[in-house]
UniProtKB/TrEMBL annotation:
<protein>
    <submittedName>
        <fullName>Uncharacterized protein DUF4405</fullName>
    </submittedName>
</protein>
<feature type="transmembrane region" description="Helical">
    <location>
        <begin position="12"/>
        <end position="33"/>
    </location>
</feature>
<keyword id="KW-0812">Transmembrane</keyword>
<keyword id="KW-1133">Transmembrane helix</keyword>
<feature type="transmembrane region" description="Helical">
    <location>
        <begin position="68"/>
        <end position="87"/>
    </location>
</feature>
<keyword id="KW-0472">Membrane</keyword>
<feature type="transmembrane region" description="Helical">
    <location>
        <begin position="39"/>
        <end position="56"/>
    </location>
</feature>
Length: 166
């Protein structure tokens, strides 16, 4: 069994890396089907297994890299170039992909302002959110505030708001 896993570790690393590479490029440029997001996340997680098998199979040769400067330099540079992504950007509100940032901005408004944009009354919008476990005190309360008070995820509120009418 070990030899079978050893023989397939590198080919699976290669195949899954290519999938991750293509889907990552598509996500970066906001092109391709929406399935790229899930594909990229899940198959990148799956990539961990053949990577671990590859390390296990090649452990001794791998350790020799740590005896030379290029490994230390590469690891240090990798950490340094990743740090700016962890620093606050100074922007208020949510970032991320434009649709998420847009929906986050919409939810900052009260139900009375958002409802007409969706072709419903404020009472209908409040009823949908209440049915989803998000209590809004008045239609003038910002939706985001009600979501935070409910402890529910924002995506649950959005799903309740945009679901087709019964």
């Amino acid at each position: 069994m070990s030899s079978v896993l050893g023989r397939y570790a590198t080919p699976f690393i290669t195949g899954l890396f290519i999938v991750s590479l293509i889907s990552g490029i598509a996500l970066f440029f906001h092109i391709g089907p929406s399935g790229f997001h899930g594909m990229h996340e899940w198959l990148s997680m799956l990539l961990i297994l053949p990577f671990a098998l590859h390390l296990w199979k090649n452990w001794r040769p791998f350790l020799t890299h740590f005896k030379r400067a290029p490994m230390g330099i590469a690891l240090a540079v990798s950490v340094l170039i990743s740090l700016p992504f962890l620093l606050p950007s100074g922007q208020q509100g949510a970032g991320g992909p434009p649709p998420f940032a847009f929906s986050h901005m919409i939810l900052a408004n009260p139900a009375s302002d958002v409802a007409p944009l969706l072709g419903m009354t404020p009472q209908d919008l409040v009823a949908r959110l209440t049915a989803a476990g998000i209590a809004i005190e008045t239609p003038s309360q910002p939706i985001r505030e009600a979501i935070a008070a409910s402890g529910k995820p924002e995506m649950q509120a959005i799903a309740a708001i945009v679901r087709p009418a019964d």
